[in-house]
User: What shape does this take?
Amino acid sequence: MGKSYRPDYAKGEILVMLSYDSKDLASIIGRASGYELVDKWEYGEGVYVYKVPAGKEAEACKYFQSLNLKKMSFVEWAARRDAKFERRINSINMAKNMLNILYDKVDVLSDDDFSKRARFIAGYLERKPQK
Assistant: This one.
């Protein structure tokens, strides 16, 4: 079996999934906590990216996980942002796009062209995603 997965955490950024998917709520919580809301995370519903001081990511995650108002939790979870995960998802999405293009041309490409493009896509997925 190969090596286990090792995340490549983004410095100074964390992910927070809110109980209610609202950018306004995310912004209010960010301002109240002193952390800057960067944007909505593109890989999950109700997940937001916050800028935190580098080296204080774990502390910020604990803070967000503790947010409650009258026993009502506003935060489902908070975690460090994994840039490697995002690069892998981007690589898969790019390969899916290339496969869709190949699929649309399956009946017009020569055998050689089809094989060449299929090998290129396979090679694309085998390469190490760029940082």
Remarks:
- The mean pLDDT is 88.
- The beta strands are 9-18, 36-40, 47-51, 68-69, 72-73, 75-82.
